[in-house]
């Protein structure tokens, strides 16, 4: 029997899961967004970088903001960006093909479809245009050292590379770039009006 995998979405938990059709068991899963959020998410897979390796592209559901994220199939984040205005909370639908991620706003956002090239996705690419370390492809003008990376590791995403994030933003108290409702870097009350799921802004 031919074996294939089906990527499915558990709407309530924002979990991206890969299920074996022959064994009928979940072989991998990860949370694309804060598990405390219940807005669901959209999902697409494709060979985005033309290297024969599929990636998982997710779009946040209603109430989270237009946050698109790109992962390896093992759940390692390669990049993320805001597809529409940060204040839009209708969610975002996603599709992808080699070299492009397509987005469409969710309910109330109109019919504005966008195509995003690799250079617009906030994904760090090596000298060979791949998003992971191959041993000799450390990105040009990369401010970090590649000495600690192992072949196959995704390049860490810098806050300044996230479209919609004005410059290098701070990290939350849990080390995340994104607000989850409880990790405000400036004190609990300072983020009361800040949208959950979006990167912290540079306040300097």
Question: How would you describe this structure to a colleague?
Answer:
- The structure is a single chain.
- Strands 4-5-6-7 form a 4-stranded antiparallel sheet, with no helix packed on it. A 3-stranded antiparallel sheet has the order 1-2-3, with no helix packed on it.
- The protein has a domain at 5-122: Lipocalin, CATH 2.40.128.
- The protein contains no helices and 10 strands.
- The termini are far apart.
- It is 0% helix and 28% strand.
- Mean pLDDT is 77; it is low at 1-13 and 162-168.
CATH architecture of one domain: Beta Barrel
Mean pLDDT: 77
**What is the CATH first-level class name of one domain?**
Mainly Beta
Number of helices: 0
Taking the sheet with the most strands, its summary is: 4 strands, antiparallel
Condensed summary:
With 204 residues, the chain is mainly β. It has strands at 5-10, 15-20, 26-31, 41-46, 55-60, 67-72, 77-82, 92-97, 100-105, 114-117. Mean pLDDT is 77; it is low at 1-13 and 162-168.
